[in-house]
Design goal:
18 helices; alpha/beta; two-stranded antiparallel sheet; about 425 residues; single chain
Length: about 425
């Protein structure tokens, strides 16, 4: 059904774009980037303009921070901002694109960026104009296609390793994932733990596993869209993780009756987890008695690695308020706006200069996540990853239960994914 809706969106949007006007795109380069006088005149002309910014909802801190940033932006530029919040973002946003009622500025998840870029619904954004040299490389490149950028990262999250200090000494944690999973470390740790506590949790999801699945040049996708899960390199990269799971050294949160890593760790049902920085507030608010530390994920195949998840601001290619939309993104992803947003919402700033000015790196619990921004793998890989990931998740449990070998499961997952992709 999800695939059908995407195809329907593509067809209807193509018709809509052909039927729509083209003249507004000429506004894009009306103001020379290096002409300060012209820029000031443009800003003056924008007073009283109104733009709509589409986003999904957040917690109270995120809402307050966004509102504060918008208030400051309006006071500085005179541009009014109408906020449009979606509950089912991609479905509602795509419907509005077809109906030509979509916002001027929109949230774009890096995972969905290839789809929207391919549909031509996002306006290219100039690298120099938006100071992209100041952004962490994986974050700016998450929205790069054929040499053009289509959104500007507003914040990010990476994965890091969390350990409970009651049972784990940081100095004892192996320096590589291969050792962590397959040496005696977890076995020895298990002997020290209460009977109902496991050494480590893990996730059966490519969103968490992609960086080591693709180590040493491997790829889970071939020919841009087809699954390559059965490739010998991909299989070899998964072997250390799966061996640890088969041996019972690591378990999923569901295996131990927990909804996710955050609760498993907070309830002290696991001593170690690999999780995103979004878990920090959850642990500090709901499990303040748990004393924990955070470090970078151990290396794999001799290389540092982690996953990064980011959302950017993009401009609707059909907007009639190009200059006002650009001015909003300039501010929201500029030093002042991003500092307001990131410090208030408790998220990590995408700009290196804002990381420094807000002193967020002084927090030892966040620093491992920040370090990961330099080398992380973006959760993004073409337009068919839902299908590929679903089949991966469908077949991996059969390996853990002993029903299939890893090679058999991944080859079968590849076959099933490609059958679905070809059928659509």
């Amino acid at each position: 059904m999800k695939k059908f809706l995407s195809i329907l969106f593509t067809v209807l949007l193509t018709v809509s774009l052909f039927a729509g006007c083209k003249g507004d795109s000429k506004k894009e380069n009306t103001t020379p980037d290096n002409d300060n006088t012209a820029k000031e005149e443009t800003q003056s002309d924008l007073k009283g303009k109104k733009i709509v910014v589409g986003r999904w909802g957040g917690n109270d801190a995120e809402t307050a921070s966004f509102n504060k940033m918008v208030k400051d932006f309006t006071e500085k530029t005179g541009i009014k901002v109408e906020e449009r919040i979606y509950s089912d973002y991609n479905t509602e946003f795509q419907a509005e694109l077809i109906g030509k009622t979509a916002p001027d500025v929109v949230y774009i998840d890096a995972y969905m960026a290839p789809f929207y870029i391919n549909q031509g619904v996002l306006m290219p954004l100039d690298k120099d104009e938006f100071q992209l040299d100041l952004f962490y490389t994986p974050l700016k490149n998450a929205f790069l296609n054929d040499g053009k950028y289509y959104a500007i990262s507003k914040d990010y999250s990476t994965l890091a390793l969390y350990y409970n200090k009651k049972w784990v000494d940081e100095n004892d944690i192996p320096k590589t994932l291969e050792e962590l999973w397959n040496s005696d470390f977890l076995t020895t740790l298990k002997e020290k733990l209460p009977e109902d506590v496991i050494p480590m949790t893990y996730n059966q999801d490519l969103a968490r596993n992609l960086y080591y699945a693709e180590a040493e040049g491997a790829s889970v996708i071939k020919d841009d869209i087809y699954s390559n899960l059965g490739d010998s390199k991909v299989i070899a990269n998964f072997e250390p993780l799966i061996k640890a799971a088969v041996d019972g050294k690591i378990k999923t949160p569901a295996d131990i009756g927990q909804g996710w890593n955050g609760d498993a760790f907070g309830n002290e049902k696991t001593a170690i987890m690999i999780e995103g920085n979004w878990v920090l507030g959850h642990l500090q608010q709901n499990f303040p008695e748990v004393d924990f530390g955070v470090i970078e994920i151990p290396t794999f195949k001799g290389q540092k690695g982690t996953m990064v998840f980011t959302v950017g601001y993009g401009i609707n290619a059909a907007t009639k308020e190009v200059d006002a939309a650009k001015e909003f993104i300039h501010y929201a992803t500029g030093e002042e706006g991003m500092a307001t947003w990131s410090t208030g919402a408790g998220v990590l700033p995408s700009r290196m200069d804002v990381t420094e000015s807000t002193k967020v790196a002084d927090d030892p619990l966040k620093m491992p996540h920040i370090k990961g921004a330099d080398y992380a793998t973006v959760w993004q890989k073409g337009t068919t990853m839902d299908t590929i990931n679903n089949e991966y998740k469908n077949y991996i449990p059969s390996v853990i239960s002993g029903e299939r070998t890893l090679e058999d499961a991944l080859k079968k997952a590849e076959e099933e994914a490609n059958n679905t992709i070809e059928a659509n």
